[in-house]
User: Fold Lipopolysaccharide export system protein LptC from Pseudoalteromonas ruthenica.
Amino acid sequence: MNAARALISLLFIVAMAWLWYPYFMKSTDDGVAQQDHIATPDYIATGLSQTSYNDQGELSHTVYAEEMELYQELGFTHFTKPVFTLYGETENWQVNADEATLYNNNILILENNVTATNLKEGAMIEKVSAEAIQVDIDSQRMESEQTVVLSGPNMKITGQGLKADLNTEIVELTEHTRTIYYDQ
Assistant:
């Protein structure tokens, strides 16, 4: 009885080893190669200068960047040191950052040292600074959940979070922290 059990156990172990052998010998390089292929940009441009128009043929925005990487399959474009100029109905804004990602639905996410400068002379808010700002290019809206600094000719406002409509010129801080007025 013990010899029969030992023989059956041995046959079971051999059968399991034979069935599991391909799994243990499978190369992990195939998975890494697949991931590398997906994360490789379809197109890289340096010294990029691009102008975009909306459906009505009006100037929507321009972008200049040190480098642009297009990931067609993943649906986004990554920019290094971009400068976006957004052309609105009443005001034009220039937004720059260390990095930015533009998605196919025209949502632009700018990160690291983000500065939005109002190009309209005599505007109450001349500059918006934050670590990250999201811009909907089609609706001309800016949002941020980070600490934001708004500055103008005679003031500086600090707050947490931002919602801004560039067409109606309405800027709202989610949480106001501090305001400083300067002498004229």
About this structure: The chain has two helices and eleven strands. The chain has a mean pLDDT of 84. The first helix runs from residue 2 to 25. Helices lie at 2-25, 29-38.
